[in-house]
Design goal:
Elements: H1 3-12, H2 20-25, H3 28-40, H4 45-54, H5 61-77, H6 80-95, E1 98-100, E2 107-109, H7 113-133, H8 139-155, H9 165-175, H10 183-193, H11 199-202, H12 207-220, H13 224-230, H14 239-269
Antiparallel strand pairs: 1-2
Helix pairs in contact: 3-7, 3-12, 5-6, 7-8, 12-14
Length: 270
Amino acid sequence: MSIASDTAVGAAGYFPPGSATRKVIGDPAALIGGISALFLQPLHPRAMAGVEQHSSFPRDFWPRLERTAGYVTTLAFADTAAADRAAARVRAMHRRVRGIDPVTGRRYSADDPDLLRWVHVSEVSSFSAAVRRLGLIDAAEEDRFLAEQVRAGALLGATDLPASRAEVEEYFDRVRPELVASPVARRAARRLALAPLPRRIELLTPARPAWTAVAAVAIGLLPPWAKELYGLPRVPGTAWATELTTTAGLAALRGALLAVRRVRQSREAS
């Protein structure tokens, strides 16, 4: 490859225009999928221990959420140099996160490939599942996204990552014996559902109901086995209605986020 083509690739980033990654991550539905991933991830005790023991809730909640969203966006849309710098910062933070998980009694470290794999798979599969649920991508595009995201996971040191929806499901089947809705996981889920709103947002009258709607849809997007682990009640014969409600809620939230985006773009252009 020539120097000129190397430069072009670097400027386009790891996921250039036209990639499935930009299509998925650029859609507001992926944001709701990301919140769903935050409900899913605590089910892995050792992964949750790192969050519980190395962050302060509620003080760190919104800054951490914003950092995560910023990182995902940077990898999807920035040039490779910016993406590499962002990944290096995350790897440096991971090296400091280690300890003993109180649920299993096992040691953990945030740079453990097994834990990196769990966080990666739960996150990217939640992004794509939310976008596909609204018919915005098809099965082939979802598989392309998951295959592209193997590169994103590798930047943080993750290995043996699934590259298709079928491989994601196989991975979840393998890891499920390790998953448990421990008291720590349930506390994390409750905190997320009732997350403290930043002062600038809390003063807005609809802010709390809006977050409640986001949390409800995010929980609705969880895989059935995750809902079972959390012990979420199921009324026989109503699963289809619950799924329709979740899909309608996701579509409504996406529409609201698109409206906010258009307003911001209009202000920036003026």
